[in-house]
Amino acid sequence: MKNFRLQRSGPYLVMAPGIILLLLFSIYPFLFLLKISFQEYSPISLDKPFVGFDNYVRLFSEHHFWNALKITAIFVSSSVILEFALGLGLAVVLNQLGWGQRLYQSAMLLPIAMAPTVVGLMFRFMMNEQYGVLNYFVESLGFSRTAWLSDPVLALPALIFTDVWQWTPFMMIILLAGLKGIPDEPYEAAMIDGASAWQTFIYVTIPQLSRIITIALLLRTIDAFRIYDTIYMMTKGGPINTTSTLSWMVYDNGFKFLEFGYGAAVCVVLLIIIVSLLTFVLKKVDVFEMGGKK
Fold first, then answer.
1. Cα–Cα distance between 275 and 281 in angstroms, integer?
2. Does a structural domain hold residue 193?
3. Domain range for 142
4. pLDDT tens digits, residue range 111-165?
5. Domain count of the chain?
6. What is the CA angle 221-230-262, rounded to 5?
7. Cβ contacts of residue 177 below 8 Å, gap of 6+?
8. Single pTM value for the model
9. What does the pLDDT read at residue 79?
10. Dihedral angle at the C-alpha atoms of 222, 74, 112, 280, nearest 10 degrees?
11. If residue 234 lies in a helix (H) or strand (E), which one and from where to where?
12. Residue 106 domain flag
């Protein structure tokens, strides 16, 4: 009887540490965040009155929020699409290499081994208007110096370029693993049918990679929404809020102006946007894989 009880309780005992950590570092912080989003919460005030949906009403009525939402959408869509396209291209090229593949692969993975703060600081120096190395090449081509990070038109593209440089290898390594997992039989059948290289890529490689592509895109999309370190080191949300994303808005209001309740409301809205987007994408992928039948 004792062994039977131990056998039944064994799985729960094994899962207990993980469940406790999940409660402490995930569920409780989320519930606390949700709670203070309905309060006028400030660490410098003992009075934390319940204000209902006032923080959310203020959020949706501010131009700054809609601007941050637009900047976030542009940044996430541009960086993820570029990283996917470049990562897929690099993965295909590396998959065709024989000798030296691991050497090239290791060299290309160096950017993701660097902390985002280090990458942001490095590109901040490289894009400096006075002594940046990028302006050295611009001048050598006969053009005038460019204020990459202080120009409202160029600041966001510079931020996207930095993110693409660092995270394209992440896409590449996931897609390369997917390519290596594709069996030879579909390619042999396509060759027998006389399919060209492009037709084989579109009708054999891409469908075989569909789930890997979905995973890579979802992981990078979630991470792109959370960008903060690079913005802090490069632009600090400027110039004129042209690089102020929703994640930067959380920092700006929560830690700069100490409006924790308002910052928590931004976090909740950002979470809803991410979950809704991911749910929509996963549903579309499932429908596509089932031939449109749900």
1. 10
2. yes
3. 72-244
4. 888 988 999 999 999 998 888 888 888 888 888 888 888 888 999 999 999 999 9
5. 1
6. 75
7. 212
8. 0.85
9. 95
10. 30
11. helix 229-234
12. yes
